[in-house]
Design a protein that fits this description.
Helices cover about 35% and strands about 25% of the residues. The protein is of the alpha/beta class. It has 2 domains: about 140 residues, Rossmann fold (3-Layer(aba) Sandwich), CATH 3.40.50.720; about 200 residues, Dihydrodipicolinate Reductase, domain 2, CATH 3.30.360. Strands 14-13-12-11-7-10-9-8-15 form a 9-stranded mixed beta sheet, covered by helices on one side. About 45% of the residues are buried.
């Protein structure tokens, strides 16, 4: 019988309740044994719904970390607390799954990577869009070299009107930014992963707070309060990599555009291209003719992909726990997530100063 991995949840709000805890609950080799939240009632509710019978409740994460039987911690708190909690958890001997974004600054992200190396514990970041069926397939295509050298890409995270009005999403201090750090981070992570390119050279960025000033605006989750809308409503970045490749990153919670896409990418290579606009499409040239192929990704589709019914969140959780049990590297490496954080920070910095941000040449 396989051993049970004892997991503690720090932060029992929406992302924990909607993603982390339901996915972990489906795994027979996991026990959720401790729940922590600054609102005690949330932790109590989570324990009832997802915990073992003897699950413990905490209001201070430092008390949870004293439990030496807890092997894994999931950090599902506001962005500005990711670094401190993750570092403390690693130093307490826990493996850490931290919800995205990694941190609100590159300095904090570096502290997390350094703590993982220093302690020998595993650290990963919750970029679940890598685990979608289309993403998994496209990554195989890219890894196989079918697109050739990918030298131009777009990272898409555009919502027409879908501003999250609950929690701390509009709080600049706790969130660290708006749609760029919230959903732009997913699109950028996906794009860099497909390109297998983590060496930025220079970044230019623009951020806008235009529609967030409007009162009574149409919105998927009800009108926002302009007085509380402290972050940008859209942001855009131009990223040039050391090898000359270019990435355009677009993100918005509110933009007058019908071209809506989220956590998707467009790739252009020397041998072919791809996009996720209308399902997964591969394009190229063959026998002096252009072709566009829409990839079938259901269970009866392409033989070279298994067509699992497992959701992206469920697959992410399962592979993470398997990495802990088997002592293998997690799919989302913290060093990769740090580059995402560095680029996002550079876009914000460039938008503020009006100047490009240059990176030190990598070794």
């Amino acid at each position: 019988m396989s051993r049970k991995v004892r997991v503690g949840i720090i932060g029992c709000g929406g992302i924990a309740e909607g993603k982390h805890m339901p996915s972990l609950a489906k795994l027979e080799n996991v026990e959720m044994v401790a729940f922590c939240d600054i609102i005690k009632e949330r932790a109590e509710k989570a324990a009832v719904n997802f915990g073992i019978k003897e699950a413990k409740i905490y209001e201070d994460y430092r008390e949870l970390l004293k439990d030496e039987t807890i092997e894994v911690v999931h950090v599902c708190t506001p962005n500005n607390s990711h670094c401190n909690i993750s570092v403390a958890s690693l130093e307490a001997g826990k493996h850490v799954m931290c919800e995205k974004p990694m941190a609100i600054s590159s300095d904090e992200g570096k502290k997390m990577v350094e703590a993982a190396k220093r302690t020998g514990k595993k650290l990963t970041i919750g970029y679940q869009n890598r685990f979608r069926t289309d993403s998994q397939y496209l990554h195989k295509v890219c890894s196989n070299g079918d697109l050739g050298e990918i030298y131009y890409a777009k990272a898409h995270a555009i919502r027409r009107r879908a501003v999250p009005t609950w929690g701390v999403f509009l709080d600049e201090e706790k969130q660290g930014g708006g749609p760029l750090i919230d959903i732009g981070t997913h699109a950028l992570d996906l794009t860099l992963w497909m390109m297998n390119n983590y060496k930025p050279q220079v970044v230019m960025g623009s951020t806008y707070h235009k529609l967030g000033k409007k009162k009574g605006a149409a919105n998927a989750w009800g009108s926002w309060d302009p007085e509380k809308f402290q972050v940008e409503d859209s942001a855009f970045g131009f990223i040039k990599m050391e090898n000359g490749a270019t990435i355009v990153l677009e993100s918005s919670w509110a933009l007058n555009s019908l071209d809506e896409d989220e956590a998707k990418c467009t790739l252009c290579g020397t041998e072919g291209g791809s996009d996720m606009k209308e399902g997964l499409r591969i394009n190229g040239e063959k026998y002096s003719k252009l072709y566009t192929e829409k990839v079938a990704l259901d269970s009866d589709g392409v033989a070279f992909f298994s067509g699992s019914e497992e959701s992206a969140a469920d697959l992410e959780a399962r592979l993470w726990i398997e990495a802990v049990i088997n002592d293998t590297a997690p799919i989302v490496a913290p060093e990769q997530s740090l580059v995402v954080t560095e680029i996002l920070e550079a876009i914000y910095q460039s938008a503020e100063t009006g100047e490009p941000v240059y990176f030190k040449k990598s070794n």
